[in-house]
Design goal:
Radius of gyration: 25 Å
Largest sheet: 5 strands, mixed, barrel
Number of strands: 6
Distance between the termini: 18 Å
Number of helices: 3
Length: about 230
Amino acid sequence: MKNNSSIPLFIFFSLSFFLLCILGTWQLNKNYEKTKQQHFYRLSKKLTLTEDINFFSNIRDLLSVEVTGLELDDKIVYLQPRTFKGDIGFHKIVVYDFNGQFVLVNKGFTKKKLKKKLKSKIKKQLVKGLIIKVPKPKFFELHNDTENEQWFTLNLNDLKNKFKLDLSPYIIYQQNIERSSYTKAVLPNYISSINHLNYALTWYFLCLTLCVIFFIYNLKFYKDANKKKN
């Protein structure tokens, strides 16, 4: 009976061990990808794409760009919820016209949405920033509520339908934002400050702890079983 009663415990241990190993390996892989992206980001500061960029061609993520275009200030969405140094707010996403190519530009973090204003006189602006391919929405992310203007992800199809434009598959994270602006420049998640290595070590440590507990429990179990036999 006791041998049979230990089977559920063994199954629980096996599943927990397997899950913790997967989580640790997943974080290690994310750490490797982030390290690789950050290395390229440091190198890309010397490789800046300037005017005459084809935003529908194959462009490497995290390249620096400097390009002049028209801000279409009537084509704006606010991604929510987003955080910046502990504050909760939005990312302001605006469409720019770069020589007939319509590209999304992340204008940075803001605590509140700016009320719509009358369409201003269009002026050319220089945009300096980092370009990445628009990430596909993750499985667990909320779907955009386009009717109520609640945007949770950069779903390119949703944005194309809203703006009625053939948008480029890339987005620029603008960095040359004035300090007096109500938005603050942000960086892509690819080069975030999250320490995935620490998370990986935490999962592996929990896995090791689980193994020690399971070993001690079984050692005590077999010692008690032997005593009863004797």
